[in-house]
Amino acid sequence: MRLHNVPWRRALEIILRASGYAYREDPGVIRVDTAENLDKQDYDLPVSSKIYRLEFADPNRMLDKITAMLSPKGKAHVDVRTNSIVVTEVAPVHDRVEQLVRLLDTPTPQVEIMVRVVDMDAQITKSLGIDWTLQGLESRILRADVNVNPQPQVAGFGVFNIGTVPSLAQISATLQMLEESGKAQTISAPRVSAIDNEEAKILGGQRFGIPSLDISGNTVIQFYEVGTKLEVVPHINSLEEITMEIRAEVSELDRASALAGRPIITTSEAESKVLVKDANTVVIGGFIRRRESKTTRGIPILKSIPILGALFRESTTSIEDRELLIFITPTIIRS
Q: For the segment 189-216, what is each residue's pLDDT rounded down to a tens digit?
């Protein structure tokens, strides 16, 4: 083998690898043998204990990765108080563990997730300028009698749309104008910070309890959550784009059934994975509900007369389709 202008250590590695050998450098000595025999020699060395204090990583999650590198005589355990991992091993394995900790114990990026839930007239959503890039995502609409049937029965299907807008600020003025005219209403606007690749949960609504009997006949309170529930897992790539795994659930309590003692919850769910640029907005639409309202107009006093009052009053019924739009804006937090 002929090598030119190659450092001796690099030349040694090339020659040994070509011959199926490896080497280990001890103080003042370089041992050459097969990789298997070198590992066996490592196991014969004396053990020592070292404390690896972590600044950013979770020691319980790091423990599995370190344990996989240990020799048969090695041990590792977590010290929760100091956020450290104590490793008892031979020196060559300590070197590998130290390198692993240096690579993995790094700051984890965070994402601030801002959510705005808006209820508006279903006919107006087309005027907001939303780019509906993904359409026709089917999701079942569940209608569950929670007091009788623990497994909700499927009543129908809804179609959900996933869209994007470059910035929520671009349509904020339109939303404000619609709110002032009574055609839209912001139900909630929470925000939460999530670590990269970790799930964030957002719930805007109410929690109520229903008394029921357990197997022993004792009265217990079973709690249910009604409102808008979001579960978002952000993933940041090298281009500072964010892939979001989104699961949205919108549930509504039927007031009449609640007053009758048999509450019925209508639940709609949507689940999708969307790639969005930093600080851009994802819109989830398709949560459409139909509202029916009755109004009575007539001559005061006369319209309240039994039987004859029908001649002096007029009743009208109006039906309005309301759509719930969920705006999700992820922003990478920079220190």
A: 888 888 888 898 887 777 777 776 777 8
Q: For the segment 218-244, what is each residue's pLDDT rounded down to a tens digit?
A: 877 777 778 788 899 999 988 888 888
300 is written with which tokens?
Answer: 């005061």
- Arithmetic mean of pLDDT, 292-315: 69
Distances (CA, A) of 26 to 46, 88, 92, 226: 13, 19, 9, 65
137 contacts 160 by C-beta, under 8 angstroms? yes
Other CB atoms within 10 Å distance of the CB of residue 256:
10
**DSSP assignment string, 106-139:** SPPPEEEEEEEEEEEETTTGGGG--EEEEEEEEE
Helix axes 59-67, 91-104, angle to 10 degrees: 140
Q: Which residues pair with 315 in a beta bridge?
A: 296
